[in-house]
Amino acid sequence: MMALQVKKKIIEKVKTAKYFAVILNCTPHLSQQEQMSLVLCYVDVTFEEVIVRENFIDFLLVQDKSGQGLLDSLIAALDGLGLHISDCRDQGYNNGTNMKGQKQGLQACILQLNRQAFFTPGGYHKLNLVLGDMTKCSSKAMTFSGVVQ
User: Would you say 24 and 37 are in contact if contact means Cβ atoms under 8 Å apart?
Assistant: First the structure.
């Protein structure tokens, strides 16, 4: 019950921020079922100081390891959280072909739905993209990023 309340608070903060990035990583579970970890990155504007956050959200069971199958799993998870792929501003994950493939990988599938969800290989500097969009809807983010109204 406690974990559900923590997740609920995190999702409230993501919704307040509006824009987010996803970090995904697939690995087989001990039972040999593929699972994908879902981490959301966002700008937390709920405090006086603006803070960039990365929060683990869940492990998603993956039935289909193709780019489309991974997309279906991600969208189902986001829908269950009340989030929309259209608010995603970046995507990052390992170098597997099913993830980063430019034609049929997950990144290509996401980009077909949302041209603003750029794929950034390596590192977690993708939050600059989220922050850029946040400046459009938060005066705190504008102050944090140095953007003047």
Answer: yes
Give pLDDT, residue 101: 63
CB under 8 Å to 91, separation ≥6 — which residues? 21, 22, 23, 24, 106, 107, 110, 117, 118, 119, 120, 126
Q: Please tell me whether residue 134 adopts helix, strand or coil conformation.
A: helix
DSSP three-state, residue 17:
helix
Where are the alpha helices (H) located in the chain, listed in sequence order?
2-17, 67-81, 97-100, 106-113, 127-134, 139-145
Q: For residue range 44-100, what is the model confidence (pLDDT) as tens digits?
A: 887 778 888 999 999 888 888 888 988 999 999 999 999 999 999 988 886 666 676
Whole-prediction pTM: 0.76
Q: Helices 67-81 and 106-113 meet at what angle, rounded to 10?
A: 50
Q: Which amino acid is at 35?
A: Q
